[in-house]
TrEMBL record:
Belongs to the universal ribosomal protein uS7 family. The gene is rps7. This is Small ribosomal subunit protein uS7c. GO terms for molecular function: rRNA binding; structural constituent of ribosome. GO terms for biological process: translation. The lineage of its organism: Eukaryota, Viridiplantae, Streptophyta, Embryophyta, Tracheophyta. Part of the 30S ribosomal subunit.
Amino acid sequence: MSRRGTAEEKTAKSDPIYRNRLVNMLVNRILKHGKKSLAYKIIYQTVKKIQQKTEKNPLSVLCQAICGVTPNISVKARRVSGSTHQVPIEIGSTQGKALAIRWLLRASLKRPGQNMALKLSSELVDAAKGSGDAIRKKEETHRMAESNRAFAHFR
């Protein structure tokens, strides 16, 4: 048993303009080499592009995209008696959102073109509609967990 107290769970701060925690999580994942102002600029341009494309509230599109990509279950490699099994594990909401944001950013980086704001807005709109590379990654993860359901007792 640990002698230290339990670690307090940190709450994500909200961004200055939209007062939204998801936007701040997205900014912190885009962040490279400490250039936070550039990350904010990319996100705010993305939000404007979403507004122009869908003519809906861009924050609701963003939340819808992240909720659509968030997985409930994933697989983890577990070594049992000499062989490695892919064991399905349920994911909490915070970790699921972090995975979803990571998948969205990776899928948008793979898109052709050089403007990150345009690529990210396209990927977010596609994810909100239920298509795109990030949605495909979520379905692939769920399929892996479903096929390895027999090893769930190794949890």
